[in-house]
Each structure stands twice: as C-alpha cells, then as structure tokens.
C-alpha cells in the first residue's frame, strides 16, 4: 500500500479539485440487465459515449487545456490522435478560444477527421499510424512553439479521466466489487484506478486490452514499457504500440491484473451493448464489457457488482457489417464448417437432414470434382459450443468429413464471400495482406511487383476500417523466391502465407490437395 499512498498524495488533491462541468457532461450509469442475467453478476456501465464528442477523451483534454498559462494558450496547441483524443482537444480548444492543430494518421476514419474539422481545429494527415503522427506533432510543437497535448501520458490528462470514477462511485447505489477498465495508452486506467483504490481499497481492478495491441500487458511482463513491433487496428482507439511511462507506473502499482480480448469477443460485446442499451459502440469503446464477459465466463463462482465504462461511439457505419458478422462467432451463435459430401444427386438433401431443423446462415458450393463436393456452410447455434460439437459429431458419424472453420480468418474474411471454384494454377502462392486503407496503397503494391508475376486470385471487401483485408494468389516461379521475399519485405505490409490453410486446399486449390479433412 506504500506505493499506492505515494500516488494518492500526488494525484488525489488535484482530482478532488477538478471541475469540468462547464463543458463535460456528468454521464449516467446504466445497468446491462440481459448480460447481467447471463453472467450472474450485476453489471453497471458509465455511459461516456454520451459525451458531446462521444468519448471520455474530452475530460482529460479539457483539464489539460485548463492548466495552461495565458501565454501557452496564446501560442496554441498541437496533438496527435487517430480520432477521439483529437475531438476532445478540438472541442476544449474551441471552448477556450485556443488555436488547435491536430495531426492524424492516414488510417483515421473520415467520420473522425470530419468531426475534428467541424470543431474548428486544423488537421494535418501524416503517416500510417499513431506513432508516426505523434512524432510529427512533437516536431511541429517545437517548430511553432505550441504546447503538445499528449493523449494519455500526462498528469493533467490522467486527472481529467479520473473524474469518471469520482462520478461513478457517487452514482452507484452500491460500491462495485470489480472495476473493468479499457486500456490503450493507459490514461483512463491510471486515473480511474487512483480513485477506485483510494475510495475502496479492496476493489478488484482489472485492465482490459485488445489482444492485437496489448502494450500494457507487455510492459507488465517486461517490467517496463516496451514498444510492440506491430499492433492491429480493428480497435483503433486503443491501437498503441507503447504504453506511457507514467501510466505504466500507476497501473503497475494499482491494477490487480490485465486480461486481453480478441476481435470476435469485442464484436460480441458491441452486440451485447446494443441489445441492452440500443447504443452502437465502437470496438475500443466496449473493451471493458468484453473483459467482463471473458472474466466471469471463466470464473463461474465469482459474484458481486461489476462496473465498467462504455467509452466511445465513434464508429463508421460501414464497419457495422463486419462487426455483425464477427459477433455471431464471438457470441458462439454461428458455426462455420467445411464439409465433404458425395458428388451425386440427393447428397445435399442427406446433408441437410443430418443438420436437422437448424438455421442455415451460409451455403456456398461449386462443382469441381466428379466424386466429392466440398461445401462451405454456416449454421445458426442456440446452445453455443456444445451444439456445434454435436453437429460436427453428427456429420462425422454419417461419414461426412468436416472441418471446423469458425476460427479461421481466411474463411471468415474471404472464402464465405467468394464465388468460383478450384483451379490448378502453376506456381501459385496464396497470401493474405493487410493493406492500409489509403489512396494508392494497392497501386504502390502492384508497382513493386515483377512484371512477369501474374495475379491468379484476388478478393477484397471493404469493412469500413483502417486496414483492408485482401486475399491474393500470385504466380511466382521457384527461381524467383528470393526476389519475391524481398518484394514482400519492401512493401511493409503485414501478410500471412496461406498455401497450407485447409480452406485453400478445400475450396480454391487443385483437386489433388483436398484429400478430405
């Protein structure tokens, strides 16, 4: 408790004095009755998605700007952000009459760029990720003598975020036994943990990170902040490669543990929030709820009152399609299967009778072999994993080889949307790429290819996110392997080689590759 007391002495006086109510709303606390009933705990969420900028980030940004001297305000400010911090800074600057410059990476959704510009800030698009944009913002701060407003690793920002917990504990009829806090750079977690541990020393404090960008978890394991080699951008609001030094130190001393959630679990939490509140949250905004589901699903004996923050609602509408598709898998409401059946009249009927009176969500097939048919099928589930295993066992028991594709990204992102069939293509190499969603990204990629490398397969689908998912077949002779690897390395794009993926072998590759599961 000694280290905690040191943090309390440093921060709690400022947190107690912090007043932001001339701009920041005191958001309500709302129950999630359906999810609470499923998990056997009482879940309360603080609705920070109802702030004027649809995110808690306004609190920290406003408190930081309030702390500036008159001279600093006259010189203006600059920040870097992929969206929510930028909107908070822009609104706070507009309210205080401060000139604001915002550097945003090229992956930032248009909805966030437009929102920042409407709030009167000047926007510069620079780099492909937050870290590159942040470096440019700090350069501009020095060149133009502006104050740099850090999105999380700043005492005044942390103090502003801490006001959420002050309100939460005042609003809850019963003090929570557990508090789940989403973590990107750690500003929210540090601020809320300070208040929660101070007001209720015995509370269980659990940080929740996206599996693809778990920089705080990596820092805990290393004993200091570390820079992740790469991060995923599905939950772009928390896609931070390196946690803050100050936020790490506070979280290290005050949090009990950190858990991570994958993209399917995040999508499922978006659905849960919608069903309980009719609110549409962005992926980063539901990390705490996703963490609650994972924690209590694995610890059936844990009981009590649970609190979290619904922290953001800046989601591109086009992205909802992808979220809805992945939520069905994350909630274990759909099974994706690859099934081999005889290529003869009546075999589809036999297959459907084996499935029984269950809903078919997907059914893809194209004749490619005179003996065997390979079908891609989605089946609606009412009883989760247990029912999926029943279906798989039933199909196998009827002599129908089956592969569970529910967790196969190539199947979920590409195969289910493709038409066509097998092809015996010479020297074909199958890869999945993450392309940055910016003008010219594909053109730049193609210009770097050898002119005699032919594209034999291509599938792209816009998911309304910062990175496009592309499945590509390229004909590259063995003699060009070294040059091809050099080409891949030079692109800088993330890729996965999929030649051995059973989905490719079953649905796209030469017939001799299928060979049954």
Question: What brief labels describe this structure?
Answer:
517 residues; alpha/beta; 6-stranded mixed beta sheet; 4-stranded parallel beta sheet; 21 helices; 42% helix; globular
Characterise this structure.
This protein is of the alpha/beta class. 42% of the residues lie in helices and 20% in strands. The protein contains 21 helices and 18 strands. It has helices spanning 2-17, 33-39, 57-66, 70-75, 84-96, 110-118, 130-144, 155-171, 187-199, 215-222, 245-254, 263-277, 287-298, 319-330, 347-355, 384-397, 409-413, 441-447, 481-491, 502-507, 511-514; strands spanning 29-31, 42-47, 77-80, 100-104, 122-125, 147-148, 178-182, 204-210, 257-261, 305-310, 334-342, 360-364, 372-380, 402-404, 428-436, 454-461, 467-475, 494-497. A six-stranded mixed sheet has the order 1-2-10-7-8-9, with helices on both faces. The protein has a four-stranded parallel sheet with strand order 5-4-3-6, with helices on both faces. Strands 12-13-11-14 form a four-stranded antiparallel sheet. Strand 7 (178-182), helix 9 (187-199) and strand 8 form a beta-alpha-beta unit. It is globular, with a radius of gyration of 25 Å. It starts with a helix and ends with a helix.
């Amino acid at each position: 408790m000694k280290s905690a007391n040191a943090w309390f002495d440093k921060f709690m006086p400022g947190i107690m004095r912090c007043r932001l109510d001339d701009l920041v709303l005191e958001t309500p606390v709302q129950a999630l009755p359906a999810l609470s009933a499923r998990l056997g705990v009482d879940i309360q969420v603080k609705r920070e998605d109802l702030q004027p900028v649809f995110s808690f980030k306004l609190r920290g940004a406003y408190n930081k700007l309030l702390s500036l001297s008159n001279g600093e305000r006259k010189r203006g400010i600059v920040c870097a952000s992929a969206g929510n911090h930028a909107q908070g800074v822009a609104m706070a600057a507009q309210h205080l009459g401060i000139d604001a410059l915002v550097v945003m990476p090229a992956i930032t959704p248009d909805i966030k760029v437009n929102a920042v510009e409407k709030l009167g800030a000047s926007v510069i698009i620079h780099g492909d990720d937050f870290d590159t944009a942040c470096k440019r913002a700090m350069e501009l701060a020095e060149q133009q003598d502006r104050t740099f407003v850090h999105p999380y690793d700043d005492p005044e920002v942390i103090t502003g975020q801490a006001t959420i917990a002050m309100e939460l504990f005042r609003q809850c009829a019963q003090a929570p036994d557990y508090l789940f806090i989403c973590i990107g750079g750690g500003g929210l977690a540090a601020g809320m943990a300070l208040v929660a541990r101070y007001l209720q020393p015995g509370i269980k404090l659990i940080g929740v990170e996206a599996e693809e960008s778990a920089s705080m978890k990596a820092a805990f394991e290393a004993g200091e902040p570390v820079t992740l080699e790469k991060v995923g951008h599905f939950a772009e609001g928390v896609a931070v490669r390196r946690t803050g030094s100050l936020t790490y130190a506070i979280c290290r001393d005050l949090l009990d543990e950190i858990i991570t959630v994958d993209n399917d679990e995040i999508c499922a939490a978006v659905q849960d929030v919608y069903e309980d509140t009719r609110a549409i949250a962005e992926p980063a905004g539901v990390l705490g709820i996703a963490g609650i589901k994972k924690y209590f699903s694995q610890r059936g004996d844990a009981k009590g009152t649970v609190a979290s923050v619904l922290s953001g609602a800046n989601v591109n509408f086009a992205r909802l399609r992808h979220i809805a598709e992945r939520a069905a898998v994350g909630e274990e409401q759909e099974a994706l299967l690859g099934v081999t059946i005889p290529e003869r009249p009546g075999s589809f009927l036999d297959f459907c009778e084996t499935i029984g009176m269950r809903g078919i969500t997907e059914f893809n097939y194209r004749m490619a072999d005179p003996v065997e048919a390979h079908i891609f099928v989605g089946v609606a589930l009412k009883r989760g994993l247990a029912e999926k295993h029943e279906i798989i066992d039933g199909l196998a028991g009827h002599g129908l080889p089956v592969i569970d594709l529910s967790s196969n990204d190539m199947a979920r992102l590409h195969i289910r949307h493709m038409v066509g069939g097998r092809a015996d293509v010479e020297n074909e190499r199958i890869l999945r790429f993450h392309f940055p969603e910016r003008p010219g990204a594909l053109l730049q990629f193609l210009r770097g290819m050898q002119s005699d490398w032919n594209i034999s397969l291509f599938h792209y689908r816009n998911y309304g996110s910062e990175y496009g998912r592309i499945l590509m077949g390229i004909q590259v002779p063995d003699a060009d392997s070294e040059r091809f690897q050099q080409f891949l390395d030079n692109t800088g794009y993330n890729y996965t080689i999929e030649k051995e993926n059973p989905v490719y072998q079953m649905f796209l590759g030469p017939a001799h590759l299928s060979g049954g599961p």
